[in-house]
Amino acid sequence: MSISTAAEPIKREPDLLDQTVVVIGGSSGIGLETARRARAEGADVVLTARNPERLESAAAEVGAMSTATFDAADPGAMQSFFADLPTPIDHVLVSGGGPKYQPPLEMTREEARGALTDHHLLALDVARNSAAKVRPGGTLVFIGGTGGRRIAAGYEIVNAVTAAFPALTASLAVELAPVRVNLIAPGFVDTPLSASLLGDDLDKRREELRSTLPIGRVVGPEDVAALAVHIMSNTAVTGATFDIDGGQQLVA
């Protein structure tokens, strides 16, 4: 006769217990999901966004410690936000807007300049203003993408921005050490931003991905959020680019 006993569940301390996570672009999509995940792992969160109503709703949903409404593309507003932020903080996630897919030869010079530089200037503004606020071993996490890795006519700017972001991230990791700097590069993620870009073609794109991706499903913002929180908690990673696309780059 044998006697079996149920195993006691393994208890662990939350990964971000008593840490502070700032989410720039935290009112929806990847930013909001990251805030939600960080809170579940014991962090206090600070949310920023442009739209005050959406920001207020998101902050109430996750129990944010504080919020700030400003346009992240405004360098003066970014500087003021970090100057007023109590120190120290532990992590900053920057969830920016999507790429500009308009063919560059149809853009004006100023439109092309913005498309080429907006994402990288935002990363530099965050790095410049947050460096003195982030604890050693904390991290800046930027959101890029993988879509521009396939060279195609009409996508020259997206290709160039995609190629440059990992190099910028690695360089900042060296310059800001011991603060860590990492880049998440998603493929298609089912977010409100994707819905606004695809419009009536959204359902068709979802079905295409379900039938072709090796994982057999569409990547959601919660998948990216889980990776972001892992990067925040794993103090051995810096200067790295983490792809999360469900295998999208592996299929035609």
Strand content: 15-25%
State the strand order across the main sheet: 3-2-1-4-5-6-7
pLDDT averaged residue by residue: 92
What is the molecular shape? globular
Listing every helix as H and every strand as E from the N terminus to the C terminus, the arrangement reads: EHEHEHEHEHEHHHE
CATH homologous superfamily name? NAD(P)-binding Rossmann-like Domain
The CATH architecture designation is: 3-Layer(aba) Sandwich
Biggest pleated sheet:
7 strands, parallel
Poorly predicted residue ranges: none
Task: Give the domain tally.
Answer: 1
Number of strands: 7
Provide the helix percentage: 40-55%
Characterise this structure.
With 252 residues, the chain is an alpha/beta fold. The chain has a single domain (20-247), classed as Rossmann fold (3-Layer(aba) Sandwich). The protein is 42% helix and 17% strand. It contains eight helices and seven strands. The chain has helices at 29-40, 52-62, 75-84, 109-130, 156-176, 192-198, 202-212, 221-233; strands at 20-24, 44-49, 66-69, 89-94, 134-143, 180-186, 241-244. The chain has a seven-stranded parallel β-sheet, with helices on both faces. β1, α1 (29-40) and β2 (44-49) form a beta-alpha-beta unit. α3 (75-84) packs parallel to α4 (109-130). The chain is globular and about 50 Å long. The chain starts with 19 loop residues before the first strand and ends in an 8-residue tail after the last strand. The relative contact order is 0.14.
